[in-house]
What does this fold into?
Amino acid sequence: MPSRSQYALMSSKDKNMVLFVCFSSAVAFFDFLIYLYMADTVSAALFPIMVDAKFAKLQGLSLFAVGYLARPLGGVILGRYGDIKGRKPVLLISMLVMAFSMLAMACLPTFAQWGFAASALFIILRLIQGMAFGVFVPLSWTFVAEHVPRQYLSIGCSYVTASFFVGVLFSNGFFTWLNSTMTSEELVTNGWRLPFVVAAVLSFLPLVAWRFINETPFFEELVRAKQKSPPQPITLLFKHCGQSIFIAMMLTLIISSITTVVVLLLPDLIELSFTINNDLFGFSHSLGIVFMVFGCVFYGLLSNYQNFGKILGIGSALLIAQTIAFFYHLQAGGDYVLIMYALLGFFSGIVGMVPAILVQLFPTNVRLTGLSFSYNVMYSVVGAVVPFGLGYAALILGFAPALYMTFIGAIGIIMGLYFYQLPEFKRINEVVEG
It folds into this structure.
């Protein structure tokens, strides 16, 4: 296996590669989240008009969830391809598929023009995009982890995770501008196409630097040693890595729940149960995401020098405490919501340290398949169940999101105790054989 010394310095090529992956990741998150921000508008343009407003909202959420449901299939198929043919080819494929699907969505006819054919085409493109996105996130962590020296593994992966939330911040700013520039009628007529055009252009931009990106040293060593995965790496994966799959799913439950609740759902959930100035809370939400970016990097850097389990356990306990304090503060009036949301975002940054462990759970020749399968199956469950479940629960009990985050924090503490008892991982450059 490649002799990436524990004390080697990160080369300029490695730094450029990390920047390339971070930029691509931010764009990919913007691509995937467009429909969340434009659900009502795109539904009005491409689907039959629903008289019942609640049913129309449910239709919009369901169509957003379609992207989550496609992710496991794409993750397994393209993940398997990446374990056999290489990380670089599948990275190119996923980026091209997302870019062309965005461009195709921008050119779709409306429901008024093509009827249900327009609706069906959009759903198909959304499924294709979801499949490509399903492999992109695990691949971005794997690509960085297999390039940088071991001592930079945690901080490198945390940069990538932070870049996802930079994509969310860009989405917030872009759609705030779009909604202030165009009327609802203009958006439904043709304005809805603009975000997809911007996403397509941004998705193609990283490919300008494609020739400067190299295959990962770990996969190149697999090729040299003739230790490629057998024809069915899924079989090999379940034969040798059942425990790793379970652990990866539990860690993904933490990542996906924190991201889904704190980053995507919290404004809507709070609106159901609390009265607070919308403009102030919108700014607080964006500020919280900014501090979440800082938190990702902070925890990634900290876990480079401290036991992962200890940091995860302590970080999860702090997140529980801040979540409960945040909701009690909202109940008391929310006078200091800016500070409270910033702290909530920062403590949610524990998600930044988790990918460095995820990539070490699986041997090199089944890493992308195992990580893609575990990550996307659990993320699809959370993405499909949590928005509806918490939305309903919040109507009954305003503190329901806090209770769910407490549950997730408890899982984080348990996983932290588990990892605290383990020796340092040695499997980053391991392979398994049939």
Q: What stands out?
A: The radius of gyration is 21 Å. The chain has one domain: 12-206+232-429. The longest helix spans residues 53-85. Residues 12-206+232-429 form a domain with the Growth Hormone; Chain: A; fold (CATH 1.20.1250.20).
